[in-house]
Write a structure and sequence with these properties.
24% helix, eight-stranded mixed beta sheet, alpha+beta, 10 helices, 434 residues, Glycosaminoglycan attachment protein, five-stranded antiparallel beta sheet
């Protein structure tokens, strides 16, 4: 029996704020449906996933569900039969143990932001200070905590690579930061952009021995600390979020409402002269090739007892040390961070009892290939007996075409096509003629 992650099992005043936002509304339908589908393949070995997902462990549970979705899509054999670490993945006879952790806030996020500058308001020097010390210390705490668990001593983890996966959720806009601070902490090497008096850019490199913020001081170069030879690599992403599930749900057709989605952010610029990432923005209807692994980064330990093959994780960027330099391999489109904007259009459809509004995935089962439709985004799906109605929107977002499919002995074929200028008009026509 499938479980609805978004049906509260705890008192309303105990619900996580982000969970409360997600559990209702058409804009979050793709997120809810996609996460529920992902959970069908997730072995809740501890039996507490649902309660933590709805309360204090929301971010960590989302991250685990994201990793599970990534491993399954990429074709790894996934084992969650042990209570720790979180995953054993296998492909081509090669096993890797993976434990997930998150950087969490010690107090409520709203309290953190009260009286504190937003990242966009920091001066360049304040931003550098955050990257040099505050964020590395934030990463250090959960990584050392996991290191002390000594997973490599478990029978099912012996003699195989052990990887720690981490994502940062410690403050309101923590996901807007790239892996720059983590690179500094793991390898003890810092690269900073310098702008001279004439506005010219250059990059300064320096070695790091420690990170100091207030009264806290920790040694740098995580991979040189005791016992870290048992950690083969660190995985990082800031894409293991509800926004990722929303986009993937949209791509997979887990939507029944008339919504549009856009994504914008920054990505790596492959121009050899570029010293900064470049901005991007696109309409999700114009792109269908996003993978679960997009935005994933792997940092290899140069002193690992059991080195991880550099290309073991599909679609990921990977980093390693060679001759004292951090070298990186990046996929063709490597995202650093992004935001997803969702817009809902009012359609005002009032359906008779014999007409059912369904998700795109429901129609896909009956008409997997819709070659008769123009390459425009579909926005509404209705079923009445052996007739299916679909509304598509043109490239300019103004005109609509309604298609009615009717079933015969050879399957569903288009019975009528009509063009309209307004969705409500097209929707009304479709309902009346379906």
């Amino acid at each position: 029996m499938s479980i609805d992650l978004f049906k509260p099992i705890v008192p309303m005043d105990k619900l996580n704020r982000n969970f409360s936002i997600l559990k209702d509304g058409a804009l979050n339908e793709p997120t809810r449906v996609m996460m529920n589908k992902a959970f069908e393949f997730f072995n809740d070995i501890d039996g507490n996933f649902l309660e933590q997902f709805q309360t204090t462990g929301f971010d960590a549970r989302v991250f685990e569900l994201y990793l599970s979705s990534y491993f399954l899509e990429a074709g790894y054999k996934l084992n969650r039969d042990y209570d720790r670490p979180d995953f054993i993945v296998e492909r081509d006879g090669y096993k890797v143990a993976i434990e997930a952790t998150t950087v969490n806030s010690t107090v409520d996020r709203k309290q953190i932001m009260d009286g504190k500058k937003a990242h966009r308001d920091l001066t360049l020097e304040e931003l550098y200070e955050k990257l040099r010390n505050e964020l590395p210390i934030k990463f250090g705490s959960p990584l050392f905590s996991k290191l002390n668990k000594k997973y490599w001593e478990l029978n099912h983890c012996k003699d195989i690579p052990l990887v720690l996966a981490i994502e940062a959720f410690h403050e309101e806009d923590s996901l807007s930061f790239t892996s720059n601070a983590l690179i500094q902490y793991l390898y003890g090497i810092r690269h900073e952009l310098h702008i001279d008096e004439e506005g010219r850019d250059s990059v300064n490199k320096s070695d790091i021995n420690e990170h100091r913020s207030g009264n806290k001081v920790i040694p740098s170069v995580f991979f040189q600390q005791p016992y870290t030879e048992n950690i083969s690599a660190i995985i990082f992403t800031n894409s293991g979020t509800t926004a990722k599930f929303k986009r993937m749900g949209y791509y997979y057709g887990c939507v029944s409402s008339f919504i549009k989605m856009y994504r914008e952010g920054v990505c790596y610029d492959f121009d050899p002269k570029a010293l900064r990432p470049k901005e991007f923005k696109y309409d999700l209807d114009n792109r269908i090739d996003e993978s679960w692994g997009e935005g994933l980064e792997v940092f290899h330990n140069p002193k690992a007892n059991f080195p991880l093959p550099k290309d073991f994780f599909d679609d990921a960027a990977y980093h390693y040390i060679e001759d004292g330099e951090v070298l990186s391999f990046l996929p063709e489109f490597h995202i650093y961070h992004s935001k997803t904007l969702t817009i809902e259009f009012e359609d005002n459809l009032i359906l008779p009892g014999n007409i059912k509004r369904v998700m795109k995935t429901d129609v896909d089962r009956f008409i997997p290939s819709r070659n008769q439709l123009p390459k425009y985004p579909e926005k509404c799906w209705l079923i009445k007996g052996q007739r299916i109605g679909i509304i598509v929107m043109d490239v300019d977002g103004e005109a609509f075409l309604s298609f009615i499919y009717e079933y015969d002995d050879e399957g569903f074929e288009v019975a009528s096509i009509n063009t309209f200028k307004g969705f409500n008009e097209a929707g009304t026509y479709l309902v009346e003629n379906l």
